Amino acid sequence: MPIDAAKALAAEPRTGEITWDHKDVQLYHLGIGAGTPATGPDELRYTLESRLHVLPSFATVAGGGKPGVTGGLSMPGVEVDLARVLHGGQSLVIHRPIPAAGTATATNRIAAVYDKGKAAVLVLRTEVGDPDGPLWTNDAQIFIRGEGGWGGDRGPSARLDPPAGEPDRVVERHVREDQALLYRLSGDWNPLHADPEFAKVAGFERPILHGLCTYGMTLKAVVDTLLGGDVTRVRTYTTRFAGVVYPGETLRIRMWHTHGSTRVAVSAADRDDAPVLADTIVEHT
Question: What is the pTM of this model?
Answer without folding.
Answer: 0.92
